[in-house]
Specification:
With 160 residues, the protein is mainly beta. The chain is built from one helix and 13 strands, in the order βββββββββαββββ. It has a five-stranded mixed sheet. A four-stranded antiparallel sheet has the order 2-1-3-4, with no helix packed on it. Strands 5-7 form a two-stranded antiparallel ribbon.
């Protein structure tokens, strides 16, 4: 028997010849796209070693999602406000803009803060006054963390 040692981002995973895991950290989560070198070191029963290297390219998932309906009276807290969801969206200043218009094309809400729009969102009011039930149009512009720009235009229904 021998030992197979995987080295991923400085962490070591040891396997015996029969595949038994000697160490416990056998998974790796990559939060951002990029490249990583993984090495495999093989040691046989005589102590002879050899190493193989492989570059892993992590392709990031870039998603932007705006629900098409929400209700401030919903029982599920997530559905009580209009929020923007997504992965790998930049929260750097000047890289996010959300605008909401009523049926007459008047701007009734805007935010340049992705974190705020993701965590809190719009509650269906303008200047402390409830907006009417109906369909609203949004325009969303932003950038992902890799610098790629995105734009999204759509409608959302406010239910009361």
């Amino acid at each position: 028997g021998g030992i197979y040692t995987w080295v991923i981002e400085g962490d070591t995973i040891n396997l015996t010849n029969d595949g038994t895991v000697v160490s416990t950290d056998t998974t790796r989560d990559y939060l951002l796209p990029g490249s990583d070198t993984v090495s495999l070191i093989i040691t046989d029963i005589n102590g002879c070693r050899d190493t193989a290297y492989y570059v892993v390219d992590v392709i990031g998932t870039q998603v932007v999602f705006v629900p098409n309906v929400f209700s401030p009276e919903a029982t599920n807290v997530v559905n009580q406000t209009l929020r923007v969801f997504g992965t790998n969206i930049s929260d750097a200043p000047g890289e996010f803009r959300f605008r909401l218009f009523n049926r007459w094309g008047e701007l009734i809400f805007e935010s340049d803060d992705f974190i705020l729009m993701n965590d809190v969102g719009w509650n269906g009011t303008t200047n402390g006054r409830d907006e009417e039930q109906g369909v609203y149009t949004y325009m969303l512009e932003g950038r992902f963390v890799d610098g790629e720009a995105f734009e999204k235009v759509g409608n959302v229904t406010l239910m009361r």
